[in-house]
Design goal:
Blueprint lengths: L1 H17 L8 E3 L10 E3 L3 E7 L12 H11 L3 E3 L5 E7 L2 E7 L4 E7 L4 H19 L13
Antiparallel strand pairs: 1-2, 2-3, 3-7, 4-5, 5-6, 6-7
Length: 149
């Protein structure tokens, strides 16, 4: 029993340390997955969502050219690598504008909107800057986990 308590406590600490806080006005739209893996966060105009991308770990290099091409093919627009090994890309998918940042671990974070306006620009800057801040602090950047209700 003691070990179960310790495990649950460590799980709680690990997941809460990296969970981000969205800008004011964003609300959760719960997805079908009970862990919250397909949750979306929206303010009615802009939407944040995640993509667990397949990341091969053959040579342990983060976001190499092969993975960058995979992400480009997956989303349908070009991606660029930053000095700190994040991948980012922006483009239009159907009627929606999309800005995607891929973390070093291969998790994709997308901002999507029908409007390419000031809000979209501000939230895209917020996304990449927040990811960098979390990385500098040694925290894992992740959307809040939802526990089955």
């Amino acid at each position: 029993m003691k070990y179960l308590f310790i495990f649950l406590f460590l799980f709680y600490v690990k997941t809460t340390v990296g969970q981000i806080t969205f800008p004011k006005g964003f609300k959760l739209i719960a997805g079908d997955n009970l862990t919250g893996e397909d949750d979306r966060y929206t303010n009615g105009k802009d939407v944040f969502l995640t993509y667990p991308l397949f990341r091969p770990f053959d040579n342990y290099t983060w976001n190499d050219d092969q993975f960058k091409q995979y992400v480009t093919d997956y989303f349908g627009f070009p991606f660029y690598r930053t000095k700190d090994s994040l991948l980012w890309g922006t483009g239009q998918r159907g009627k929606f504008y999309s800005y995607v940042v891929v973390s070093q671990g291969g998790q994709g974070f997308e901002l999507s909107s029908q409007h390419n306006d000031t809000d979209f620009s501000n939230y895209s800057k917020w996304l990449i800057n927040t990811m960098r801040d979390y990385d500098k602090k040694g925290k894992a950047f992740m959307f809040p986990m939802r526990v089955a209700e």
